[in-house]
Amino acid sequence: MKEFQLIEHYFHRQNQQRRDVKLGIGDDCALVQVPENKSLAISCDTLVEGVHFFADMPARELGYKSLAVNLSDLAAMGAEPAWMTLALTLPEVNQTWLQGFSEGLFEAADYYGVSLIGGDTTRGPLSINITIHGLVPNDTALKRSGAKVGDWIYVTGTLGDSALGLNILAGKVQVDADNKDYLIGRHYRPTPRVLAGQSLRSLASSAIDLSDGLMSDLGHILKASEVGAIIDVGSIPQSEAMTSSVSQDDALSYGLTGGEDYELLFTVPESQRGALDTALLHAGVKFSKIGQISAGRELKLLLDGQAFIPNFSGFEHF
């Protein structure tokens, strides 16, 4: 199957394009209509075999995750997903793999209202590069730089599940069957908090998605906002699958440094805490308060009121 046949067969879905796509796949460029009152949010991620995923990762799960991690970036800015381009590097044309990958990709795209509007294919080591485009009302985008002293620090969902799932896949940890399926599922299929991000636009003072782990990503907010933070390690939300599978120390390690959860970390002023409860209730997202922004530049960790000094390193994509 040649390049244009491949694109036509697996990735050309013109009948499912958004109305704001004026010209999609099939020309030198795509043409889209950007509303006058909105800004364009753009992000790009690359997934490389052996760096970001194992060679035996199911193709459908890889297709889904490839888009989900990009959607999480839009969620962190409070943007509405709109369009994507895909650059796919393949060692060979494996039609079974392509069928599964495209099905997973479009499963996520259809659910979140994203149109594939262009891209490229080439031969080489397997890698997936997606550029995602979203829309956000002017002057409402969430940023990393708005946290203020006294703001409360929150996270959505539970933390550490994806990193534990990765270690299960790598054969480093063994857990019971039910927990294994759940934890690997959280690694393969993160949930981008798109609706939650949009709900936070008028409430949160800063936000970021958790791709590299709580400590690393919180550090980005603290640096951009020029503030410090106090984190209650015991309040970090964790799943039952996590706490029933590993020791408390290991659970704390996963919660603080485990990457690829793609939950949202955000800060909220005291004056908006009541509105936050209502907003995220409508978004159907569980969230937890884990600390507070402080003066200075230091990140302090507390456990049961005492200083907590972690003895583990940060997350890496193997």
TrEMBL record:
Binding site for ATP: 119-120, 144, 211
Catalysed reaction equations from the record: thiamine phosphate + ATP = thiamine diphosphate + ADP
Residue numbers binding Mg(2+) 4: 28, 43, 73
A single GO molecular function term of this UniProt record: magnesium ion binding
Pathway: Cofactor biosynthesis; thiamine diphosphate biosynthesis; thiamine diphosphate from thiamine phosphate: step 1/1
Keywords: ATP-binding, Kinase, Magnesium, Metal-binding, Nucleotide-binding, Thiamine biosynthesis, Transferase
The protein's Enzyme Commission number: 2.7.4.16
Domain PurM-like C-terminal: 148-301
Binding annotation for Mg(2+) 2: 45, 73
Gene3D superfamilies listed in its UniProt record: PurM-like C-terminal domain, PurM-like, N-terminal domain
Binding-site residues, Mg(2+) 3: 28, 73, 209
Domain of life: Bacteria
Gene Ontology biological process: thiamine biosynthetic process; thiamine diphosphate biosynthetic process
Family: Belongs to the thiamine-monophosphate kinase family.
Protein name stated in the entry: Thiamine-monophosphate kinase
Species: Shewanella denitrificans (strain OS217 / ATCC BAA-1090 / DSM 15013)
